[in-house]
Design brief:
GMP Synthetase, Chain A, domain 3, about 45% helix, 2 helices, globular, three-stranded mixed β-sheet
C-alpha cells in the first residue's frame, strides 16, 4: 500500500500543473481501501465540471497506472 501511495503522489504532481494552469489545484489527502482521497482547490472547487475532472481525468490517469485503485473521491 505504501508503494501505491508513493506512485499516487507522483502522478498527482504530474497532474497538478494542468489544474494550476486553469486557476485550480489538487491536494492528495490519503489512499485507503483502494480509494484515493483528494481535495480540489482554487477554481476547481465548486466548478460545475469538477466531477468530470475527477472521474474522466484524474481517476482514469491514476487507475491506468495503478490498477488496485478502485475510485478517486474529492474530500471537501
Amino acid at each position: 500500500m505504501e508503494e501505491n501511495t508513493e506512485k499516487i503522489e507522483k502522478l498527482i504532481e504530474k497532474i497538478r500543473p494542468f489544474l494550476i494552469n486553469d486557476g485550480g489545484d489538487l491536494e492528495f489527502i490519503r489512499y485507503e481501501d483502494g480509494i484515493v482521497y483528494i481535495k480540489l482547490k482554487g477554481a476547481c472547487e465548486g466548478c460545475p465540471m469538477m466531477d468530470i475532472t475527477i472521474k474522466e481525468g484524474i481517476e482514469q490517469i491514476i487507475k491506468n497506472e495503478i490498477p488496485e485503485v478502485k475510485e478517486v473521491k474529492n474530500e471537501s
